[in-house]
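User: Here's a structure from my thesis project, written as structure tokens. My advisor, Dr. K., wants to see whether a designed sequence matches the one we expressed. Can you design one independently, without my sequence as a hint?
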């Protein structure tokens, strides 16, 4: 993981964000084309998967920008809500393309973001601006989702949870045991999978806060906010997973990294077993759930498992608190090095040096949500 306190993101908007989506897609497609697939049909399936993440992100941007251009000139109340929704979408896409290097995982994220943004925009279309209560509620919703994304990007890999991660490792806790510990502290009984999604989110929020991180999700969410809960449950689950795994993945030996890089593909269970065979004296590191999750999310070295079931696999892990795992025995996957979207974004920012449409995020994290309309021709 390295020194996370030095990790830097550049938050992109407009033309620059669209360029990030295109550049990441092009590099990913090139990597896929260079991999040994069983057949051209199989290769095309994975290219389409990669293209779906690209297309969904661009569709999200277009829908949100269309709403701003439609409402801002004629209705300030609706215009402000549309503007904050656009910012939320843009920030969410930054999360997807800069912090999720695996496009098969990113697709699941942007699909959830799309469902939520479309629900917000549909509510905006139907909103009677004279209905003060509904207008205020929708306006507050758009702001809280936008601000949560800002805080997530501000705190991404900031190193504040290092001591907690080391403590979790020293205690020998599995992901499921970590989640269960904090579930019980909140007084939630029964299986984690049986909790309401809002309760699951509260458990993950508590772990994040106890780890030393800022409370990223400073909001109360109602279970009726299905789209928002889905986006932030996945976001919080990924954050807790990163906290849990960070101290472990630093101990991956060179043999493990090299083995992963040389596999090429196969059944997920066989791939994981081959990698696990290189690991000694760490049962958590060598476990199927750990290696599969790490291979999907953070990679081993710069190499990832890409598979159609990636989103479903993570939904099951985070939805069950690590107790239920999708069977991967007969599921085909491929293993490939994937580009770093954060590096690409930083290069776009530095090459263009457009301060108005890119906000650097460094050690001091001095960013705030943009004020005023985001009307522009560059999306």
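Assistant: Designed independently from the structure alone:
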């Amino acid at each position: 993981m390295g020194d996370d306190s030095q990790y830097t993101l550049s938050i992109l908007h407009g033309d620059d964000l669209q360029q990030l989506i295109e550049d990441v897609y092009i590099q990913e497609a090139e990597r896929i084309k260079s991999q040994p697939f069983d057949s051209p049909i199989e290769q095309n399936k994975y290219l389409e998967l990669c293209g779906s993440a690209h297309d969904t992100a661009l569709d999200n941007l277009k829908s949100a920008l269309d709403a701003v251009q439609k409402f801002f000139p004629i209705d300030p109340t609706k215009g402000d809500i549309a503007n904050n929704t656009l910012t939320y979408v843009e920030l969410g896409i930054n999360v997807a393309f800069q912090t999720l290097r695996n496009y098969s995982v990113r697709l699941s994220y942007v699909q959830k973001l799309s469902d939520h943004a479309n629900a917000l925009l549909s509510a905006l279309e139907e909103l009677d601006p004279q209905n003060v209560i509904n207008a205020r509620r929708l306006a507050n919703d758009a702001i809280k989702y936008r601000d949560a994304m800002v805080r997530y990007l501000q705190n991404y890999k900031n190193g504040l949870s290092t001591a907690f991660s080391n403590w979790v490792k020293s205690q020998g806790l599995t992901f499921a045991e970590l989640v269960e510990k904090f579930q019980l502290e909140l007084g939630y009984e029964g299986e984690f999978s049986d909790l309401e999604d809002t309760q699951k989110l509260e458990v993950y929020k508590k772990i994040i806060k106890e780890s030393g991180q800022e409370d990223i999700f400073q909001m109360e969410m109602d279970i009726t906010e299905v789209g928002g809960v889905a986006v932030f449950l996945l976001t919080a689950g990924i954050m807790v997973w990163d906290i849990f795994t960070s101290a472990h993945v630093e101990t991956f030996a060179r043999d493990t990294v090299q083995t992963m890089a040389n596999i090429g593909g196969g059944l997920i269970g066989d791939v994981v077993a081959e990698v696990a065979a290189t690991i000694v004296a760490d049962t958590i590191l060598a476990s199927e759930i750990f290696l599969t999750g790490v291979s999907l999310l953070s990679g081993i070295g710069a190499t990832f498992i890409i598979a159609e079931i990636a989103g479903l696999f993570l939904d099951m892990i985070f939805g069950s608190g690590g107790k239920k795992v999708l069977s991967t025995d007969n599921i085909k996957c491929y293993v490939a090095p994937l580009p770093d979207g954060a590096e690409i974004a930083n290069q776009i920012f530095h090459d263009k040096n457009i301060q108005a449409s890119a906000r650097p995020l460094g050690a001091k994290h001095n960013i705030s949500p943009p004020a005023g309309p985001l009307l522009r021709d560059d999306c």
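When you compare it with your expressed construct, this may help: The longest helix spans residues 40-71.
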